[in-house]
Design brief:
The protein is of the alpha/beta class. The chain has a single domain, classed as Ribonuclease H-like superfamily/Ribonuclease H (Nucleotidyltransferase, domain 5, 2-Layer Sandwich). It has six helices and five strands; from the N terminus they run E-E-H-E-H-H-E-E-H-H-H. The two termini are 23 Å apart.
């Protein structure tokens, strides 16, 4: 069972992102403050959950959180500042939208930087350890997937209904045949002979 948060003496927000490894679409990040007694048996690292359970949890998290926010940084911005900085920027923007503002952040991953001036700690695989990070991972993932499904209506050739912009073989073959869209990250390698990433 996940620990609700890493600190109980401070108002803590968990933060996570979705879409760092994609060839197309924004990177999304979420920040979530959970009640100290929050528990849900389905909550886990969003990558370990089915799409149906993620959608179910999204409604619960958005209803029961003390505060939550989701922000996105565009493919164009990713190309300008790189994907790592774009992930940090999306997380910081999400934190700034929280009301009340947290006193402490717990970040999924091994590094973070921002100009928030707020204490934080990074936790590798934190979305499998703390419920507030797991909740942020669910919101970031579901909001991003929803966005990519909408884009798939406009660009049906790339398989975004299935791959959500990740570098699958189908996606790379479509890029070879149809070229890049305005939503592709131009600084990412789109060649078919590159190793495919798991997602």
């Amino acid at each position: 069972m996940l620990e609700t948060r890493s600190r109980y003496d401070l108002l803590e927000a968990g933060c996570d992102e979705a879409g760092r490894g994609c060839l197309a679409g924004p990177v999304f990040a979420a920040a979530v403050i959970l009640p100290p007694d929050f528990h849900h048996p389905l909550l886990n690292d969003s990558k370990q959950m089915t799409a149906r359970n993620r959608d179910r949890l999204r409604a619960v998290i958005e209803r029961e959180s003390v505060a939550w926010a989701v922000e996105a940084v565009s493919a164009e911005r990713i190309d300008r500042i790189n994907i790592l900085n774009a992930s940090f920027e999306a997380m910081a923007q999400a934190v700034l939208r929280l009301d009340p503002q947290p006193e402490f952040l717990v970040i999924d991953g091994n590094r973070f930087r921002s100009q928030l001036g707020m204490p934080y700690c990074c936790v590798v695989q934190g979305d499998g350890k703390y419920a507030d990070i797991a909740a942020a991972s669910v919101l970031a993932k579901t909001h991003r997937d929803e966005y990519m499904v909408r884009l798939a209506d406009e660009y049906p050739h790339y398989g975004w209904l299935q791959n959500k912009g990740y570098p699958t073989r189908q996606h790379r073959l479509a890029i070879r045949e149809y070229g890049l869209t305005p939503h592709h990250r131009l600084t990412f390698n789109h060649e078919i002979d590159q190793l495919e990433l798991a997602f």
